[in-house]
Design a protein that fits this description.
Blueprint: H1 2-25, H2 30-33, H3 37-79, H4 94-141, E1 145-150, E2 155-158, H5 160-166, H6 170-173, H7 185-197, E3 204-212, E4 223-235, E5 241-250, H8 252-287, H9 294-326, E6 334-337, H10 338-355, E7 359-364, E8 370-373, H11 375-391, E9 398-406, E10 411-418, H12 451-462, E11 466-471, E12 477-484
Parallel strand pairs: 7-9
Antiparallel strand pairs: 1-2, 1-5, 3-4, 4-5, 6-8, 9-10, 10-12, 11-12
Helix pairs in contact: 1-3, 3-4, 8-9, 9-12, 10-11, 11-12
């Protein structure tokens, strides 16, 4: 109402002013000319003002109603979510109102479209954020190192493995030059060369050595590791190089296993060849008739039998070790009394010890020495350790077998001590390796070099215990084993 009334008042004042101006020109009228000039002026101006006011007041009221309806229409269209209301205005203002409402409708439609686009973009942004986090989680979970650089050589993405291998903090290296954090110049050059080739169809595979530093706080020196480096270019929408993806796959363990297999085959072939050569030689001697009497033939037979048994033990040990390492050994866990195992081994070795005048002394604690394990496997450990002690102890020596329980670790502690030759310090770290034998002791006793390795696998892999040795050259040795009383799954004693 205020807008219409204000417009009416302004127009009335304008018309009144026009009427006053006209009154000056109306002095020519006779009956008006007889009036005084002020009276004529007021008469004409007042008459025109009244007439104009009477005409413009309805017009102002119509305008005011139209503006009020338009305001209500705008408020209704802004708050309505369905079909907008219809605007009704005065006939003489309908063209203006129609054009105005059409523009408002277009604006509202555009606003709704923009709001829909905004909501869709927000949804896409949230989905992209979730996918980004998932991708980062996958990259950080990979054991292989993943490194992504852009066209300028800056680090864009780096997982934790890349940081550990290349020696930098991935969180600090993002959007920083690669050369600033990676000191391996050849590795950086490989990435630059890949980016310059701009070959999107092929991936480069290069073997590269990297000096990997020891973990922080570890005084051990760094270790050289071998990696299969895969490099691939990233293409942008302009078919230009946007960056390079680099993946480092550690081949160190693969190479070590390959070398171990080669060494195993070489050593196994050598160990198998020795008894076979001996058996073949004695067979040829028998065929050629070199054993002229029965005593010579019996000696040949005994030698062949010993070598055949040695060959059988070697093959059995190799098979047992391979099966244990492959994880396919199924053992039967039962209550095993170590006292019975030791007594059984002593009875078996007593004749050999008596030949060498070696005393077998047992010191068994007067407690329960039972464990949960495989009886046959544990007997091999007891027999192997005691047999080695007898073999490498000079005539007239002493072998002491002891067993006790450790309540702190809930283990049975088994040990075999001898007064033998002892073990050189440089050989202590290799005793439990496959086919390892102290070079100077090969003439003292025969062996396959697999017994201690088999004992280690039985104790540590199958029974989750511990095995070790204490020795001083010339003062004898002490081999010991800790066997948990109760099987604890994958937990070690």
């Amino acid at each position: 109402m205020r807008a219409g009334k204000s417009a009416s008042l302004i127009l009335a004042l304008i018309v009144s002013a026009v009427g006053v101006a006209v009154s000056f020109a109306a002095t020519a009228v006779p009956w008006m000319a007889s009036l005084a000039p002020p009276a004529r002026f007021l008469l004409v101006g007042g008459a025109l003002g009244l007439v104009t006011t009477a005409l413009l007041l309805p017009l102002g009221a119509a305008i005011d109603r139209t503006v009020s309806r338009l305001r209500s229409y705008l408020e209704a269209t802004g708050s309505s979510e369905g079909k907008p209301p219809v605007f009704y205005g005065s006939r003489w203002m309908r063209p203006i109102s129609t054009a105005f409402t059409g523009a408002v409708d277009q604006f509202r439609a555009r606003e709704r479209a923009l709001n829909n686009d905004l909501r869709e973009m927000e949804i896409r942004c949230r989905v992209s954020e979730v996918e980004r986090r998932q991708t980062e989680a996958v990259l950080h979970a990979l054991r292989d190192a993943v490194l992504v650089t852009n066209a300028f050589g800056d680090i864009v993405v780096a997982n934790e493995s890349a940081g550990l291998i290349l020696g930098f903090d991935p969180t600090e290296a993002i959007h920083r030059p690669l050369e600033e954090f990676v000191k391996d110049s050849r590795f950086c050059q490989l990435i630059r060369d890949t980016s310059e080739t701009a070959n999107f169809a092929e991936r480069r595979h290069i073997e590269h050595e990297i000096e990997v530093a020891a973990p922080e706080g570890d005084a051990a020196p760094g270790k050289t590791r071998f990696f299969d480096v895969t490099l691939a270019c990233i293409e942008n929408h302009k078919h230009e190089v946007a960056g390079v993806v680099t993946i480092l796959h550690d081949l160190t363990r693969v190479r070590e296993i390959s070398q171990m297999k080669s060494d195993f085959v070489s050593k196994a072939s050598h160990e198998l060849r020795t008894p076979l050569a001996s058996i073949r030689a004695y067979v040829e001697m028998l065929v050629d008739g070199e054993a002229g009497d029965e005593d010579s033939r019996q000696e040949f037979y005994r030698t062949m039998q010993d070598e055949a048994e040695r060959l059988g033990r070697l093959i059995d040990n190799m098979l047992n070790i391979s099966r244990i390492e492959a994880g396919i050994v199924q053992i039967e866990r039962e209550n095993v009394d170590f006292k019975l195992l030791i007594a059984r081994a002593v009875d078996s070795l007593e004749p050999h010890a008596r030949e060498k005048k070696i005393s077998l002394i047992t010191k068994l604690a007067d407690v329960d020495l039972s464990v949960e394990g495989d009886s046959d496997m544990l007997y091999q450990v007891v027999l192997n350790l005691m047999s080695n002690a007898v073999k490498y102890t000079p005539d007239g020596g002493r072998v002491t077998i002891a067993a006790d329980s450790d309540n702190l670790t809930r283990c049975v502690v088994f040990s075999v001590s001898d007064t033998g030759l002892g073990i050189p310090p440089d050989a202590m770290g290799h005793l439990f390796e496959k086919f390892y034998r102290v070079e100077n002791y090969k003439r003292v006793a025969k062996g396959t070099g697999l017994g201690l390795n088999l004992c280690k696998h039985i104790v540590e892999t199958l029974h989750h215990g511990q095995i070790g040795v204490e020795s001083e050259l010339g003062m004898g040795s002490k081999f010991w084993a800790l066997i948990p009383m109760r099987y604890a799954g994958s937990q070690a004693a």
